[in-house]
Structure formats: structure tokens, C-alpha cells
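User: For my dataset I need records formatted as: sequence, then C-alpha cells, nothing else. Please produce one.
Assistant:
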Amino acid sequence: MKTQKEIRANFWQMLQETNPDLAKLKKARKTQNDYPADIRCAFVEYTDNLQKSGVITQSMADKTTL
């Protein structure tokens, strides 16, 4: 993954597979702070895991938002 858009798309796909009820809350015009804390926390953990496994850089993890 090289872009924030790819990271977000993969996050929503992963969430669809692991927690479809939360994934249904996805809306095109919502900003990060419009989502419930469960989704925001899951996204932070997701990007943190990507960074720790070497898929994305620390810089990309720091600047990527929903």
C-alpha cells in the first residue's frame, strides 16, 4: 500500500470481513471524527499494525486518517 486511499480501502474491506455491523456505518462524506470511537480505534490499531509489520512507513501511519 502506497497511498492513504489504499489504506482506507483495505481497512474498510477488513472491517467488512471482521465486523460487518461497524462497516455498514461507512459514509462517503464523513470525516474521521464523525465515526464512532470503535471505528476510530480499530483504524488506529490497523495502521499501527501495518507500520509494525513494515507494510507502511511510520510517516504514512502518522498522517493517514479516515
